[in-house]
Amino acid sequence: MKENVLFVMQRTKEKLWFRPLIFCLVSILAALIAQIADSTRLHEIVPDIKTESLSELLNIISASMLVIAIFTVGSMISAFAAASNTATPRSFKLIIADDVSQNALSVFIGSFIFSIVALVALKNGYYGRAGYFTLFIFTLLFFSLVILTFLRWVERISKLGRMGHTIQLVEDATTNAIQNRLVSPTLNGIAVHPSKNKGEALYSNLTGYIQQINMSELQKIAKKMDAVFTINAIPGKLVSIDQPLLFIALKNKEEKIDYNAIKNAFTVGNMRYFDQDPRFGLITLTEIASRALSPAVNDPGTAIQIISSHIRLFSLWNSVKETIPVKEDLFDRIAVPQLELSDLFEDAFRPIARDGASNIEVMIRLQKCFQILSKNSNTAIQKSSFYNSKQAFERAKMEMKLEADILLLKENCLFV
Q1: pLDDT of the residue at 55
Q2: What region does 208 belong to: left with phi over 0, alpha with psi -120 to 50, or beta?
Q3: Spatial distance between the Cα atoms of 224 and 316, rounded to a whole number of angstroms
Q4: Coil, strand or helix: which one is 156?
Q5: How far apart (Å, rounded) are the C-alpha atoms in residues 199 and 247?
Q6: All structural domains of the chain with their residue ranges
Q7: Cα separation of 131 and 318, whole Å?
Q8: Mind listing the pLDDT tens digit for each residue in 7-34?
Q9: Which among 124, 163, 128 has a CA at the least distance from the CA of 46?
């Protein structure tokens, strides 16, 4: 239950309306609780605030904040469109979840609501002397917050939707997903035993991507049934009615299986999310590189930048394990397969090798990338580096027409 709540909360926080709604509620509360000061002895020591000056200040905020909020939404929409058109539509979720932009929109709308509520209360004699002073302090705080937020947001909107900023957002999200998976390679379950009988297959009723698995709920069900579950569909995998979600190995063959409860532990949706799906981040970065290498765009520099991002991401298998301890197994009834690094390499490098095969600069950088990753302490990364280096060279040899380019590229290959 806790995992489902956290998943729903995470998805809700990404919505554009969530933070403005919270800030609006806080703004209304601030405008109303200022009256509480009238029930204290604060009125004996605070200066007398004229209603006209306070009203004028609130009028300025109410008149300007709605215009600025509309301008903010327009600028954000333009940034979203730019990110989808220049990078990839898959980056849209990260752009729309930008903290600075959401906070700016929240402050502007919240300040507008605060000024309206405060003006109505002010005109109807809701406040006494202490209430006037408290409301004045709140108004100054809101005014200062608006100015600081606007300055910070102007700096961010100059980057939002730009190629470099979008790449950084995707790389950061992928880094977090990889780090989380390295801390718990089997999602806090046990490793899959290759020679063991996995048991009865349980199929999905839906077609879509696995977005989240409620491991604690599966553990309870498995304990109750005295069974071991072997997960077949980890987050990010596409499942359909012919794809097993998991396999059920029962100790007591006559035990009744609650199929619906098991299926409900899997969240299946139409789209993938970055937080639990490292492959999706790598695919998104590579999509940006493929678009940059298309004849319509012809931007090899962006592809080279993406290759550098991939080097940093795959290097995490070398650095993170040295600094972050792997979590102990918590779900001893659930066997979970680990990520296949060969699959990650294909997601990251095969499209770039295909679309950039005729570009000598891109292919040399790709081969240098494989040289760097071949020195990684992870054996699977070393093997994948050699294999993909060979494959990338073969693709380039088929596309490049100048023999000198082919010889130069071969000098940078791992298998030479």
Answers
A1: 84
A2: left
A3: 38
A4: helix
A5: 5
A6: 2-161, 187-269, 275-411
A7: 60
A8: 667 767 767 678 788 888 888 888 778 7
A9: 128
Q: Give the pLDDT confidence of 313-358 residue by residue, as tens digits.
A: 999 988 655 444 555 558 889 999 999 999 999 999 999 999 999 9
Residue 50 and residue 43: Cα distance in Å, rounded?
Answer: 14
How does residue 174 score in pLDDT terms, banded at 50, 70 and 90? very high
- Give dist(CA 358, CA 197) in Å, integer: 47
Q: Are strands 208-213 and 266-269 parallel, antiparallel or unpaired?
A: antiparallel
Contacts of 157-164 with CB under 8 Å at 24 or more apart are: 157/75, 157/76, 157/79, 157/101, 160/76, 160/79, 160/83, 160/95, 160/98, 160/101, 161/78, 161/79, 161/80, 161/81, 161/82, 161/83, 161/86, 161/95, 162/82, 163/86, 163/87, 163/288, 163/302, 164/305
Q: Of 136, 111, 101, whose CA–CA distance to 24 is shortest?
A: 111
pTM reported for the whole predicted model: 0.81
**Are the C-beta atoms of residues 386 and 344 closer than 8 Å to each other?**
no
DSSP single-letter state for residue 333: T
CATH 3.40.190.10: does it fit domain 187-269? no
Q: Are 216 and 360 in contact (CB under 8 A)?
A: no
Whether 3 has a pLDDT exceeding 80, the answer reads: no
Query: E strand or H helix at 208, and its extent?
Result: strand 208-213
Q: Which of 163, 382, 351, 184 is nearest to 278 (CA)?
A: 184
The span from the CA of 354 to the CA of 215, in Å, is: 38
Quick one: pLDDT at residue 25? 85
CA 341 to chain centre: 21
* DSSP label at residue 190: B
Among 106, 110, 95, smallest CA distance to 156 is for 95
Using alpha carbons, select from 237, 238, 241, 217 the residue that is nearest to residue 229: 217
Pair 165, 156: CB distance under 8 Å: no
- CA–CA distance, 303 with 365 (Å, rounded to integer): 9
45 exposure class (CB count in 10 Å sphere: 0-12, 13-18, 19+): exposed
DSSP 52-67: HHHHHHHHHHHHHHHH
Cβ-based burial of 381 (10 A; exposed 0-12, middle 13-18, buried ≥19): buried
C-alpha span between 4 and 278 (Å, rounded): 20
Which element (helix H / strand E) includes 230? strand 227-231
